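idk why but the lab printer keeps eating my pages so im just putting this in chat instead. protein + beta-D-mannopyranose:
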Amino acid sequence: MKKTLLSTLLAAALVSCGQPKQEAVKQLPTRTPEAEKLLANLKTIPQKGYMFGHHDDTNYGIGWEFEEGRSDVQSVCGDYPGVISFDLGHVELGDSVTLDKVPFDKVRKEIINQYNRGGMVSLSWHLDNPMTDGDSWDVSDTTVVASILPGGDKHEKFMGWMGRLADFLNSLQTADGTKVPVLFRPWHEHTGSWFWWGQKLCSTEQYKALWRMTYDFLQKEEANHVLYAYSPGTEFTDSTSYLERYPGDDIIDLVGFDTYQSASRDFYVEKARKALGILTEVAKAHDKAMALTETGFEGVKDPMWWTGTLAEVLEGYPVSYVLVWRNARERVTHFYAPYPGQESANDFVTFYNDSTTLFAADVKEILYK
Ligand code: BMA
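predcted complex ->
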């Protein structure tokens, strides 16, 4: 009996020798139904208008922080933004607060609140420099991206950081266990050279490999409630240069760019509209949603900025959303949305009342249906 069994096993082993190895292929998780619906609706929303977005909207504002239900935008117009973005900088360190000193527990809570009110969440990541332990803006070394790719001497350290990111993303769940779909927008503004992953700090191949490594890792961690945004600065001049470091249609769900008004209104309008024209071509050719992922005029020093400038920038382009940056409570001139009494507040109400602009209540019955 023993002999027979042994010979059977030997025979089986011999037969399997030389045959192609059958590896167990792990089926990558598909998107959650909520993420799938969000993506489909992001693509059709421009038929109705565009969502207004504000960074860190419900975390703090001018003269306040961490007050339940408070938002400068809501205080001015009566509704919350259609999109709220949050930053995950320092999640990689395992810190309890973000780089802007918001507790991660608060960020998680506000992400879930925004989903429960029917709005959308976008996430940026101003993470530290894994080589120098400086911040995102530490561009003192041009080998940081190379060092975190497979084979690089910071690879293992960086994958530990990615693990903490994945844990936070996977913790974004409602009371009934639904994972809150989020648009993740890492490695942004890479066409400039102010972040350690920027244009002059790595090659095109390294930048694309960084994206693929990020995506593959989060897929492996089953963060299947995450959509991805590609979001350069405004350095591109045509669709070819826009796509120079594009990581691929299989990774990216939404294309956008960041641009700000610094001085002349006309220069900003012209620059933004030209870029939106290029973005429209790219989004159509690649069948992607598109957005003006970051914009604004610091201090909104123009009482008619919303209807007189921003609405004009967006006129005629199929953007799903436009997002303005944060109202920093610790730097009172660093704000991009109005607050009660601010000089552009009345015009913001006109902008809000326009049927083209979509706030949380306007998209409540749309985004996840
Ligand atoms: C920048 C500024 C910084 C902030 C960073 C991340 O544009 O607002 O003060 O730390 O974004 O939110």
